[in-house]
Amino acid sequence: xxxxxxxxxxxxxxxxxxxxxxxxxxxxxxxxxxxxxxxxxxxxxxxxxxxxxxxxxxxxxxxxxxxxxxxxxxxxxxxxxxxxxxxxxxxxxxxxxxxxxxxxxxxxxxxxxxxxxxxxxxxxxxxxxxxxxxxxxxxxxxxxxxxxxxxxxxxxxxxxxxxxxxxxxxxxxxxxxxxxxxxxxxxxxxxxxxxxxxxxxxxxxxxxxxxxxxxxxxxxxxxxxxxxxxxxxxxxxxxxxxxxxxxxxxxxxxxxxxxxxxxxxxx
Amino acid sequence: xxxxxxxxxxxxxxxxxxxxxxxxxxxxxxxxxxxxxxxxxxxxxxxxxxxxxxxxxxxxxxxxxxxxxxxxxxxxxxxxxxxxxxxxxxxxxxxxxxxxxxxxxxxxxxxxxxxxxxxxxxxxxxxxxxxxxxxxxxxxxxxxxxxxxxxxxxxxxxxxxxxxxxxxxxxxxxxxxxxxxxxxxxxxxxxxxxxxxxxxxxxxxxxxxxxxxxxxxxxxxxxxxxxxxxxxxxxxxxxxxxxxxxxxxxxxxxxxxxxxxxxxxxxxxxxxxxxxxxxxxxxxxxxxxxxxxxxxxxxxxxxxxxxxxxxxxxxxxxxxxxxxxxxxxxxxxxxxxxxxxxxxxxxxxxxxx
Lengths: 267, 353
Prior knowledge:
The complex is a heterodimer of chains A (267) and B (353). Chain A has 267 residues and is an alpha/beta fold. Chain A has ten helices and nine strands.
C-alpha cells in the first residue's frame, strides 16, 4: 500500500472512531483532559481512569478529597478533577486522617506507591488503619521505586533485579518483601483489604469493582479500606509494556495472589 | 473583663486553644508539655466538639495538621524540643503550601534527648526556618502564662492573615509554672471559613483546588519563593512586637526573650538601685525581629548585654541589627540552668563597668 492510500485509510478510521455513536469508551468527566506524564504502558493511568470512573458513577466528585504523596503519582492532582492535597513522602495516611477527622462526611482517599506506603510511611499506614480511619488507600505495588528510577522497594520480590539490588534481591541481606495487605488485615480497625491488578481487561474490571466497594464501605463508615493493585513499571523493569504485563501475571501475582484478604463482616 | 483563674502555663495554653475556637489538635506526649494533651482530653471535645487525636508520633501529628489546615480549619499542635525537631519536615511543607496553623514549642534543654528543664536552645531552629528551604515561621515568645494565652488568640489570627505557620516559643518554666491569668471569652468555632484555597470538596460551580509544595519548573518555584519572601517582608514591616522598659535615660540595655526577660527585669531594678542606668528591650516577636528598634537605640547607649538560656543565639540578630554602632555582649546559661538576677548583674558589671 502506498503512503497516500495508507494515510487516507487511517483518516477514515479516525473519523469513524470520532463519531459519537461509534464510541465504546469515554474519558470520565472527572478525569482532566490533559496529557499524562506517566510512561507508556504504566498502570497508573489505568488506575487513575477507573478511580475517576467510580467517582463519577457514585456522583461524589464534589465530596471527594484525594491525597497524593511523593512517588510517580505525586502529580495525580494534575489529572484527578477533585480537591487534592500533595503530601510528604510516606505521610499520606496522616494527612488523610487530618482531612477526614475535620470533614467526616467527605470521601477521602490516598493514592500511594509501595515505597511510600510500606517503607517510609509504614508507621502512618499501620496507625491510621488501627485507628479505623474511615478512608480508602489505593496502593500501587510494582515492587520498585519508579520516581527515583528503579531502586529496590519493600515489596521487591526475591531475586528481582533493581538498581540497588543489581544481583537480584537477596533476602538474607536485604530482607523479605513486605506483604502489608496481609499485615493490615489483622487489625480490628480495618474493614476491607483486597489485592487487585490492572494487567488485563478482566482484572481492570474487577479492580474497579473493588474501588467502588471501598467507597461504599466508607459511606457506611465501616473503617479503613485498602485496595492494593499489583502493577507494572515498564521503564524501570526495562521491559516493553506487554512484556511487563506478562511479568505481572507470571511472576508478581504468584507472589502477591489476587483477591479479597479481608471483607467487612456486615455487608 | 475576662474570667480570672490561677492556671499552669500548659493548661492555660490548652484552655486558650479551646476558647479560640480551635477545630482540631493533633499531638504526641512529651515532657514538659504533656499537660496540653491531657487537659484537652478532659475538656476540649465535650465543650466545643473539637477534634483531638493523640498521634503515633510528632511526624504523624504535623502531617495531620497539614491535612486539616488544608481543609481551612483552625488547627494547632504542641510539643517540646526533640518533638519539634521531628516536625521540621512537615513545617517546611506547611510553609511552602502556605497553610495557616499554630504550634507551640515548650523548649527544654538540649541537644539530643537533653533535659526536661527549661532552655532557649531552639531559638535558631525557630526563627531561621528549622526545616529545609527558605522559609520562616512567625515566632511569638511569651514571658508569662498570661502572654501565652494572649498569643494563642493572636497566633491563630496571624496564621490566617498570612497563611503561614506560627510558633509560640515557650519553655519548660512558663509551661509548668502557675500564675494568675485572665481568659478571653469563648470564640465560637466556625463551621466553614470559606477560604478560596481550602480543599473541602470541589465547589459545584467552581474549579477544584489542590494544595502542593511541588513545583518542578524552577521559574515557578522561584515565583513561590518570591511570594514567601514578600510575605516575610510584610511581617517585618507590620508585625514586629516588643516591650521596652526604662530605656529613655538608659546607658546600658539588657535584652532577653521569654522567661529570661523576667529575670532581666529584676536585674534592671537591682542595677537602678545601685545607680546604674539600665534599661531593657524584650522582643515579643522573634521573627520578625525588632531590627529597627535595636538600630535606633544602639547609638544612644554604651552597650547591650544579651542574656539567654543558650550559648548565644538571639545575640546574633541583635548584632546584625545594631550594625556595630554599640558594643554587644552575651551572657548565657545552658542545659536547663536558669540564671539569677544577681548573677546577670554581676556579669554585667564585670563586662561593662
